[in-house]
Amino acid sequence: xxxxxxxxxxxxxxxxxxxxxxxxxxxxxxxxxxxxxxxxxxxxxxxxxxxxxxxxxxxxxxxxxxxxxxxxxxxxxxxxxxxxxxxxxxxxxxxxxxxxxxxxxxxxxxxxxxxxxxxxxxxxxxxxxxxxxxxxxxxxxxxxxxxxxxxxxxxxxxxxxxxxxxxxxxxxxxxxxxxxxxxxxxxxxxx
Amino acid sequence: xxxxxxxxxxxxxxxxxxxxxxxxxxxxxxxxxxxxxxxxxxxxxxxxxxxxxxxxxxxxxxxxxxxxxxxxxxxxxxxxxxxxxxxxxxxxxxxxxxxxxxxxxxxxxxxxxxxxxxxxxxxxxxxxxxxxxxxxxxxxxxxxxxxxxxxxxxxxxxxxxxxxxxxxxxxxxxxxxxxxxxxxxxxxxxx
DNA sequence: CATCAAGTAAACAGATCGGTTACCTCCCGA
DNA sequence: TCGGGAGGTAACCGATCTGTTTACTTGATG
Lengths: 191, 191
What we know:
The structure is a homodimer of 191-residue chains.
Chain A (H helix, E strand, L loop, with lengths): L2 H17 L6 H7 L4 H7 L3 H27 L3 H17 L7 H8 L6 H23 L5 H22 L4 H17 L6
The first copy, chain A, binds a DNA duplex (30 and 30 nucleotides) through helix 3.
């Protein structure tokens, strides 16, 4: 694993997140990473490959950060499900928060079945799987339904925090999540 | 109101939604609208002005479509709050659904306090106001809290439908919304 | 010291970007 | 009949885009 390659990916993640994909030129990335374009094109055949590498790296990076943060807040399944939104709040409050890189990527590459789109779908699917796992651990009756709902709340909080620039969207989501979670823990049949 | 101008705005909305803002060149828009660049620049001083005009037009167009659709489904406040997600489902299922134009715009112009960003915030604020009005009509105890939660569910459904390409996200959101709504209708004090 | 891989800076290519302009046509009203 | 505004065509501008190439420097290894 080359150091230059990693520097390029890190820089690309930063610039793509902040300015978008089409608006960020490769000259800009190479300059910011202090790497010549020649070296850059030795590591990545095209801009699209650099985008894909950036998305995949961010995928691992973010999910690792997210899961570790959640599991550090509490060891109890119930609390962990709600801790998801505490972690989200901290994420939103970061000065370098420009929304979810994958949502933004789909917004720019929504056409057809591109590899970029698939990378974003993979990320979202893995995040959904993690929430589902937490729901199962919490012992709710229908973990799939609850997990899907909580995932929607999380996505909604992300875009709301991005558009309105307000990290408190995470708190709103957490309150709603608590209602849904408590409801899912009841034994009553669905009426 | 010029016919050419309207044709340009309609074409711009279509192309921007489908391909994004940076990826859509003005030559392309002018060609598709069958309008010369000269005429285009007589109506809009710059690409940014065309983007703003497109966003504002889509704002009115979409909100009108959305509210009329909701109010056509039912006249009862309770049902209308849930009908929001039925309308969303139809929207997602449309073949020309490429996510929320305003969310996508913020993803590309997330930097600073641009007019584009503000136009998107206005749209989202007005949609939130409408949901709040429905919540008030439904007579819940804390309409603000419920409306914020339902708005998050709607946003989450939009991006999930966009990324995963699955209109069923609206159904999941509707089920969660029903739980939240029923909970908000109870008289019990917050515990 | 010779060699070779890896790096840099810089020019370059061809296309496209947003935006402007010169020139022609057409139509409508005085 | 004539003037003027609206619109179209097409060339053009400088800048920037992705991607390639050239010429030079560096550093480690034999």
